[in-house]
Amino acid sequence: MTREHCTPPASPTQPPRERPGLLSVVLPAFNEALNLTELLPALALAFKDQARQVELLVVDDGSSDDTALAVQALIHQGLPVRLLRLSRNFGKEAALCAGLDAADGDAVIIMDADGQHPIATALQMISEWRQGFDVVYGVQTGRSESQTLLRRRFTGLFYWLIHHGSRINMPPNAGDFRLLDRRVVLALRALPERARYMKGLFAWVGFRARAIDYVPHRREHGASSYGLAQLLSFALVGLTAFTKIPLRLVSVLGLVVSLLSLVFGLWVVLEKTLLGQPVSGFTTLAASITFLAGVQLLCLGIIAEYLGRVFDEVKHRPIYVLQDLTPPLQTPPLPSDPPEVSKEPV
Fold it and tell me: What residues contact residue 229 under an 8 Å CB cut-off, 6+ apart?
């Protein structure tokens, strides 16, 4: 099932695209040896007729299991697989950047290495790309029902802050499972920031987009490495990278506290002068000081998050470090291949 995004659809007069000359599939992997052994042959079989050439780019994000050995065994079997090994675990966002930097395809599909993203949906993405859409992303259905009430509330607050504090439309329940046109990949490569929140960057670059609903498969091997702490850290990166509304809310909070303090002070004066009530002593003073100290620490914490983001950016460290990189696949072009043209933007 497809849904149109807020960006305008492809023009009806635009001719459909030909099948891609090179289709790249980027798969970030962390301890996914068993899943990749089953997934990569299935992907190679499913995509072999979708492009003149296919490359499956596995980004080994510092795995501690036999992920690299499993991928190398499949390469020796003749599968169109390339292996990118990072020098340590840099995180999924960095692994995605490494895969996009190495992908040379006319169309690039991003999939998880755990096998939960349906191959049938990926094939549908290729069909939508051929109709003229530059970004085709998957929207996971039934995700909210499987989450706790507290997590749904925090998720709703996160998207509210993003939508009201920035000019990008980040669709809920849409993750990294998507197809990107070559132009979109080049636009993402040009972005300079080190703190990468890819879901936000995908929305920021724009282009014509189409949403496709999908139901994820059950994970066959292993367990997800994303816990509550990782999700909260991920949310902080997204907020500090795409919206300043927490800083504005801090300013509003300071104004409200100042007004309440002024009103309370006037009330104490009126009580003393008009009603003759004695001014309350230590309890009121202690409660006021504690409350104001808490507000100040909250404000400093929010400011510190943004300052820490600036600190990370000014160091200009690379997003990732490659340990090994399999060279591009070398296959002779088919006789029907058109002359090669530059893929760089005009």
Answer: none
User: 25 phi and psi, to 5 degrees?
Assistant: -120, 115
Q: What is the mean pLDDT of residues 51-80?
A: 87
What tokens were used for 143?
């995700």
* Average pLDDT estimate for 35-47: 88
pLDDT one-digit tens code per residue, 68-92: 888 888 888 888 888 898 888 888 8
* H-helix segments, 272-330: 282-314
SS3 279: coil
Q: Secondary structure of the chain: what % helix, strand, coil (to 5)?
A: 45, 15, 40
Contacts of 333 (CB under 8 A, 6+ apart): 52
CA angle 223, 201, 94 (to 5 degrees): 45
β partners of residue 2: 212
Q: Which residue shows structure tokens 């305008």?
A: 8
- Secondary structure of residue 63 in the 3-state scheme: coil
State the residue for tokens 């998957």: 138
Q: How far apart are the first and last CA of the chain?
A: 34
Give me the DSSP letters along 84-104: EEESS---HHHHHHHHHHH--
Cβ(106)–Cβ(23) under 8 Å?
A: yes
